[in-house]
Design a protein that fits this description.
- Helix 2 packs across helix 11.
- The chain is 33% helix and 24% strand.
- It is an alpha/beta fold.
- A hairpin with a 4-residue loop joins strand 17 and strand 18.
- It is built from eleven helices and 18 strands.
- It has one domain.
- The relative contact order is 0.13.
- The radius of gyration is 22 Å and the shape is globular.
Length: 401
């Protein structure tokens, strides 16, 4: 009889716990934090390229105004898909200088989650993203840079990540961004692929294979997993597991400041797109940037020679930041905000304690563990710290919200 009571009690706890977690989240007071989100790569209404940020904003009850929480399919600037082939563009390109100045005053922070954009073949014919075509909308614009300049002048928080200044952003816009924040894009991007075998992996980009073959007399001798590096000029470097790599997956290793200040794990795999950034503050003449975490590519002697010949480092920043009285800035050298996750889990207080149920870390290519163990704690800490800073400024009369 006693055993049955214990079982019944456990069943009640299991059934009631989700409701209690939702109710606790629902009763948590909203906190106004105005975030200007820029996403130009939205193929459907899920808002995949900015959903991770919205998840954290919703989980922490940060609201766009005094009453309304953020909605992934509405609360951003960029490309808005409609029914069929219809779409709307509501980017900063329509803003005047006065409107950009007003936005810089009204917004507490800005986050460029993706400017890669939408391409004609991809949108109208819905072909897989393994072919290149003419851009329909994308790239960082003069108005985007204008907003960043205004935000910096107002000492605001600014965040950007891959692919903010990569293709199709024009060179002159990219150089303005580099000068504004004291960093330099080497022109290299990379990604781990679960298989480099063209027969086994049909998702390998055709343009990647074609460019490599053109540079190597039609050869593509790869069959295992590995990392592909692509330069803005079209040069391709392939590192294959076992042949060139001692560990096929790129890893992000946190510095002590990253662990302490941003709640980052000491090390985590990263199997998605990234870019190779040089934190060249001296050449750009800007304030000092600190690497809170860095990418590590585990190469053997052959792989090290391949990277050296193309001037690709095997260690480079993953999280760059500048924090000071003048402005706050973060650059994430990966597609950090794009993670496959259920937005519905953000409505439950304390859901982080059950994170292990949402991913299988044994799968090399899964990205959910990156969200739960890296992005979520990092962005939570950044947003909480910024909200506390703004609240303190309001309380002391040193800031206007």
């Amino acid at each position: 009889m006693k055993r049955k009571k214990v079982i019944l009690l456990l069943v009640l706890v299991v059934l009631l716990l989700p409701f209690w977690m939702w109710l606790t989240w629902r009763l948590t007071p909203k906190r106004k934090l105005t975030v200007a989100i820029i996403d130009k790569t939205v193929l459907d209404r899920r808002g995949q390229e900015h959903i991770s940020l919205d998840w954290v904003l919703n989980q922490q009850r940060f609201s766009k105004n005094r009453t309304s929480l953020y909605t992934p399919d509405r609360d951003y600037f960029g490309f808005f898909p409609g029914v069929g082939d219809r779409f709307r563009i509501k980017g900063l390109e329509r803003f005047s200088s006065e409107q950009l100045q007003r936005l810089a005053v009204d917004a507490d922070m800005v986050y460029f989650t993706d400017t890669y954009g939408i391409y004609k073949e991809e949108w109208y014919r819905k072909v897989p993203d393994n072919e290149r075509s003419a851009v329909l909308y994308g790239g960082m614009s003069e108005q985007d840079i204008g907003l960043l300049k205004e935000m910096k002048a107002h000492h605001k928080l600014m965040i950007a990540e891959f692919n903010a200044i990569g293709s199709p952003t024009r060179d002159e816009i990219r150089h303005q961004f580099e000068h504004l924040f004291g960093l330099y894009w080497t022109g290299w991007t990379g990604r781990w692929f679960a298989s480099l075998d063209t027969i086994e992996n049909r998702e390998l980009p055709h343009w990647l294979i074609d460019q490599y073959k053109r540079q190597h007399d039609g050869s593509w001798p790869f069959h295992r997993d590995g990392i592909a590096f692509v330069h803005l000029s079209g040069e391709v470097v392939i590192l294959e597991n076992g042949t060139d790599l001692t560990d096929p997956l790129p890893h992000i290793v946190a510095e002590q400041t990253g662990v302490h200040d941003l709640d980052l794990p000491v090390s985590i795999k990263y199997p998605f797109w990234f870019d190779v950034i040089d934190p060249d503050s001296v050449r750009q003449g800007a304030a000092h940037n600190e690497a809170a975490a860095g990418f590590v590519i585990s190469v053997n002697g052959k792989g090290a020679a391949l990277l050296r010949n193309s001037h690709i480092p095997d260690h480079f920043p993953a999280v760059l930041r500048h924090k000071g009285a003048d402005y706050s800035f973060y650059y994430f050298s990966g597609d950090f905000c794009d993670n496959p996750l259920s937005y519905g889990t953000s409505y439950f207080k304390g859901i982080k304690w059950f994170k292990s149920f949402f991913y299988n870390d044994a799968e090399p290519g899964e990205r959910k563990s990156f969200f739960w163990n890296f992005y979520r704690p990092m962005m939570t800490r950044i947003l909480e710290d910024e909200y506390s800073r703004l609240s303190l400024a309001d309380a002391t009369g040193k800031g206007v919200r």
